[in-house]
Amino acid sequence: MAGPGEAEERGAFEAATGDGPAPGVEPRARAAEVRVAFEGLLQIRRMTFTGAGDPASVPAPWERQRPVRAVALALEAAGLAPSAVDGAGLRTATGFRVLAGERPASVRVEWLGPAGSGAAQQEERALTECAAVLERLGWEALLYRGPRRHRFLEVEPLR
Prior knowledge:
The protein contains five helices and six strands. It has helices spanning 6-10, 27-48, 61-65, 67-77, 119-136; strands at residues 84-85, 91-93, 95-100, 107-112, 139-145, 151-157. The radius of gyration is 15 Å and the shape is globular.
């Protein structure tokens, strides 16, 4: 996976996981990039799907191999904002954060923001919305409460 800024230098799209800087493009341009990337993901699903039913509702092998990127893209494509950090690692925006989970092919989704942003009060509602988006796309998303009552989603592809 490319580091922050590297993908933009190459001209490649990189899903925002909430652990990097805010995307450095105008919001409408970013929305267009996300839409094209997500349409590409859906096309991969259609081309690799071998079962019965709706291919859009089953993660493709590509997604299963890159779950952090796939989940981050799905959330951003649904209109949910990623969190962001500055060069010192301080949160600058409230939104989702996607990181690798404890088990292979699983991810953890958190709702974070700068100190005093109210992210903790938004957490349960926002994560419930994230879970609904992911479940429509074939991901199992379970809401947990961790240390200090911090909520998070544990997400993995449905079998």
